[in-house]
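Appendix B.2, paired examples.
Example (i):
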Amino acid sequence: MQKHRIKHSLVSTILLISFLLISACEPLQQPTAFEPTQGQEQPTVVIHTVTPEATLAPTQIPAALSVNGVLVSLSYFQNEVLRYKDSLINQAVQATDQEIQEKVIEYLVEQELLAQAARAAEFALSDEQLQARIDQLVAELGSGGALTTWMQANHYDDAEFRASLRLAAEAAWQRDQIIQSVPNEVEQVRAQQIFASTEAGAQRALNSLNAGAEFEKLAWEYSPESGGELGWFPRGYLLYPEVEEAAFSLEPGSYSEIIQSTIGYHILLVLEHEQSHPLTTDARVSLQAKALQDWLAQARSNAEIEVLLP
């Protein structure tokens, strides 16, 4: 089995981190698709509106969600649904309205939980900092009218755009605290495996090992593309926990019995085991994503969340 088949899929990692990386620190895409026709007057964005104290709607406005008593307005939710639908236009398989609604609810809840934690930690984005960011966007796009056009095409008015920027900045700050808590060096093992798709094949390999065959030679025979090399990996990194558990329980230089997983049969040889070893970029991203997922799961379990959709 190739190395990448036993590790976490980076697709979910990249998606999870990209989902939460939307922050006021990133420039918006140039709205080339919305340039006005020649002679048409461009609208001018309102760039000095007073920012509302709350990022979400007051209680008298219809709400879609309540997260620990903080309301997400129905209009904000509906516009977020439209933005999500826009992002799916070129997808071969279209999500159902129910699936889209569930995704948007999940996103808004998690964003609000992160933002609430940031505010509890006394992170604050001042009105001046928020305005400076908007001024920067205006400069990047070339005019206030260009920003207004982008906002209109993406279902924002001025107040909601400002509130969204502030909420995204708060959520991004808390996200960064979580992922930065993952150290650069952790306990890791380096292992090699013999992988067989059938139990009979794995048993033949184990019999050969017990008869004195060289592990590395057999590993290359069973996996000629990689020699079964798994490299260094920390706890929580491998896709199959039963394989990882065996790896961390073996002494360096020893090999395991046959380990069955959902994809086949493994025999592990632990080459090295260190209490503190530098993480690869891939492993650190994976652990950061797991730390974020664990934090969000814990925050959700402790939160009072109510869906108020009509």
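Example (ii):
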Amino acid sequence: MKKGILETPSGKVKNYRAQAVQTDVLMRIIMAGLTGPLINVQPWNFMIVTERTILDSLSIKLPHAKMLHKAKAALIICGTPEKNELYSRDSWVMDYSAITRNILLACNAIGLGAVWVGAYPSKERIALVREILNIPKEVVPVNVIPIGVPGGTGQLREKFQKENIRWERW
């Protein structure tokens, strides 16, 4: 495969440079995330964290989030799935997944590195993120996305398997 967007380092960046991520860039990344939701109930909330002590606390306490120690920002995608009964039962996880994927792609497209660190569905991780960020009980932190300028080159794992592709019929 030729080098291109699929081989950029932001596939799973765990090392970041000291360079800050600008506020307007973080806002544009969130806007890009919102191009993907399925239903317009809008139960989402976003937290932007750039304070070093908070990033470090999340890094230490949240499993699989050690890269937050060097990240210059994190987006926390939160939601209130109970805002709409039908939505909370059927679609909210798909919407948050679409938002997260679009955020990761937006970061990649502008040369930033990002990683999807899940909080939901782990009750322990949800409680931990709620406690650190003072998130109200009715709001569910779905994931934490460390963001920063990649430090070095990333290594993407090969996930493409030709035998998993079907044409026309199974």
